[in-house]
User: What shape does this take?
Amino acid sequence: MTEVMEAAGKRNTGLDLLRALCMLAIVMLHYLYSADALLWSEPAQGAFPPSETVRTLGTLLYCFAICLVNPFVIMSGYLLYDRAFSLRRFFELLCTVVFFGIGVQLVMTLVTGEGPSGAYEWVQALFPVSSRHYWFMTSYLFMYPFAPLVVTGTKAFDKKQLRMLIAIAVVFLSLIKSIVPVRFVTDEGGYNVAWFLLLVLIGAYLRKYEDDGFLAGARSLFWYVICALAIFVLTVGVRTLTISGGGFLTLFEILRDYNFILCLAAGVGIFVFFKDLPLRADTAPAGFLAALSAHTIGAYLLHAHPALFYVWLSYVCLLLGNVPDKNPALFLLHCAGSVLIAFFAGVATDCVRALLFRAAAHLTGKGKEKEKGD
Assistant: This one.
């Protein structure tokens, strides 16, 4: 995302690394779902279901990966604290989403010979934001115009006031839904703009007050691990109760929400850990990470496209073979290979997109205007 590529001043290489890891985690979440490698609320079904061991391992990976989604948005609030609102960045991101929405659909139509079955699916491709073609980008782009107001607002409050505001928002958007085993009509699981704005507020707070208290240093990583493991233990425990007829299905689903309180806590912990990593920004690896992070959004926009989301793993399996659903070690290798292939395919596609955008800007004579505006 262009608005979070770099902070004013010295580049934070730790955040470049975190951005790449967050996107790898998102791809892994979709791999585990597509591979049916998760513990569901009922015993394994089907003629050849994955083994319970593989599904348990997949659920463990899932619990660690899902905690890396919130930091992607927290990062925006953190870096926007020292940046002015840019209408150009907003439209560039919007155009990127539209490019993938239409482009992937056209390519898949040419490859498979089967296009959208009706007008609604074409509308989804042509208007990916309004139709929630990509839920994350819809929430993010709807949030974008309000994020600068939230970030600017943090500068008008002192530390105690900000903590109080964050605490109130966390109670209503996360804590209550996490401890009451019912699905409230106002709860959207962290898929909505209100949740993203809270994450932006947390990121701005962490930028304003760099002293992170008990989360400073290695304790932030420990906090992430403990919270992710707690989600896993709760998931296995609640699933056991659900299968035995305990009627905890709603709670089982809540544990996997982005606004579950432990998921938020783990996300804050891992974000603090990476933002404080003492990594030099003037090395070759840091330069590679900076270039890579500028195109990580392509990994999401490619494989999560509705025309690919349910079939991308089958294409990867043509290279790596079927998912090893009985052998945990082979499953891990297959998972790592599949995630890396999808990730770098998306990054490469976004590199092509960036070249096309630059060429279009040059042809329209706006390239020089852009440079002056920057």
The mean pLDDT is 87.
